[in-house]
Amino acid sequence: MQKRVIVLFFCVLLLFFAVDARILWISLSEKSVQTAAGHGRYTIKVDTGRGTIYDRNLSAIVNLGVKYVAIVAPGINSEEQIDALSSHVFDVSVLKTNIEKGLPFTITVDSPNINVSGVTVVNTRVRYSEEAIAPHIVGYIDSAGSGVTGIEKSFDKVLKDYSGSVTITYAVDAKRRALPGVTPTITKTGSTNGGVVLTIDRKIQQAAQAGADKYLKSGSVIVMDIRNGDILACVSEPEFSPLNVKAALNMSESPFVNKAFSAYNLGSVFKIAVSCAALESGISNGYKYTCSGVVDVSGRDFHCHKLEGHGLEDMSLAFANSCNPYFITIGLKTGADKLLEVSKKFGLGRQTVFAPGISTDSGSLPTSDELKAPAAAANFSMGEGNLMVTPVQVACMVSAVANGGLLPTPRLVKGIYDGNKMVTDYPGAVPDRVISTEIAEQVKSFMIRTVNEGTGLPAKPTYGGAGGKTATAETGWLKDGKTINHAWFAGFYPADSPRYAIVVMCENGSAGGTDAGPIFKYIADALAPTCGYPAVDQSDSSTDNK
């Protein structure tokens, strides 16, 4: 009996301990659940920028500036945080309001050197600067960070793929306040060092923009490497600032249009093509013609810009004088079909696609049927009529003459860079021979004479000489009762062993030599050291024409 009582006692005692242990386990579990429910994570992500757009020498065109962003976790040292940050923020009241809320937040600061507990400073890239470099090529992004125009849009995915960010994760309580004593986790992803490499040369682009800013109110400038068609500079005026797109949207001058890629009436620059066609057809450079100031074509008079005429000229002198009657005469002798053939060989009337969404206008050429009318053929021979070209096309034509007869294909994008090496190359096309070396050399000499003693004298550089052709192209438009013309200067630099084709187009200009010539000279002078000539002091350049 006693033995049974003892066994029963131990059974009850064991049951008691089991129940007590269960209660204790449940109690601890409930506390653990409450702790888990009361703690969590709070993550803040700071975008440090998207991929970079580089010039040909891997010099950045965007992401030039740095902005500092402080990630703040308010804590028991809030007063210390306010003291440390107050002198580095734009609005102290915003800082204090956010700290009072107690939640981790971000705020822009002016220094990376802020040493206080609960504050982490992150470097982010400033996409655009006050001095916008090649804005019509680069384009701009919207408030969401997506490309809207230019390279920003065409290579949006690539530039986003090379975006960088910093993520900081805090352990927080139920009110999302950072727990004191718990070190946050910081994760850095991506790098903005990768991106797109252009053919643009930043220094040449800046020189072209400086010349345009000084002299050009509305128009464009192209600088091209005559050997391969690489676009080294591209300017369109008026420019826009990617920092203030809204202001540009309200401008009436169409600042978003890239005029270097748009088609315009050409005028006498077309005499480059006419000279080549005439020489190819067998007309000699020594062909003589006496300009009396007017030529009759099927009962219609075509006047020279020099009303009294130039007198007796050969092709070289007529080119330097930009004599319309001479070129009408040799144009008609050459024949419209030959003029069209050479025009097409030079790429006139043909669009260039640089990248998805980035292309030139094709321009236009008259048809053979249109040119059956002698007056239309006469107009065409001096670059008027149904002839529209882009500055890029003109730069290619000039390049072909300057390099001995090889027409380059224009190129704007070199490839994709991953921050260490080129991972994708977009090689340029092999230039096509479009005229003989002999003809190219003859026309090249015409262009040099034009700068030395003809209508292109205002374009003559300080060192190295140059060759070029002027134009004052009639548009057929009127503004306030006055005819609107476009002034051109298209040439190469230097005269011997040329390296660059430079094309300047001034909308609503008066004369190619006086309007566009000084811009050519300014840019050529800036390029002088790259060709072995002394640097030119540009500070004493003549008064602005803008």
> Structural class of the helices, strands and pairings?
alpha+beta
What helical percentage do the residues reach? 25-40%
Rg from Cα: 35 Å
Strand content bin? 15-25%
Basic shape: elongated
CATH level 1 name of the largest domain: Alpha Beta
CATH topology of the largest domain: Beta-lactamase
How many individual domains? 2
CATH architecture level-2 label of the largest domain: 3-Layer(aba) Sandwich
Number of separate strands: 25
Largest sheet: 5 strands, antiparallel
GO molecular function, one term: penicillin binding
Organism: [Clostridium] cellulosi
Protein name: beta-lactamase
Family: Belongs to the class-D beta-lactamase family.
Pick out its properties.
glycosyltransferase; Penicillin-binding protein 2a (Domain 2); Beta-lactamase; PBP_dimer_sf; elongated; 16 helices; single chain; 2 domains; 546 residues; alpha+beta; 5-stranded antiparallel β-sheet; 4-stranded mixed β-sheet
Would you give an account of this structure?
- The strands form 9 sheets. The chain has a 5-stranded antiparallel sheet. The chain has a 4-stranded mixed sheet with strand order 2-8-20-21, with no helix packed on it.
- With 546 residues, the protein is of the alpha+beta class.
- Helices cover 33% and strands 25% of the residues.
- The radius of gyration is 35 Å and the shape is elongated.
- The termini are far apart.
- Helix 7 runs antiparallel to helix 16 (512-527), helix 9 (271-280) packs across helix 15 and helix 10 packs across helix 15.
- The chain folds into 2 domains: 40-197, Alpha-Beta Complex (Penicillin-binding protein 2a (Domain 2)); 202-540, 3-Layer(aba) Sandwich (Beta-lactamase).
- It has 16 helices and 25 strands.
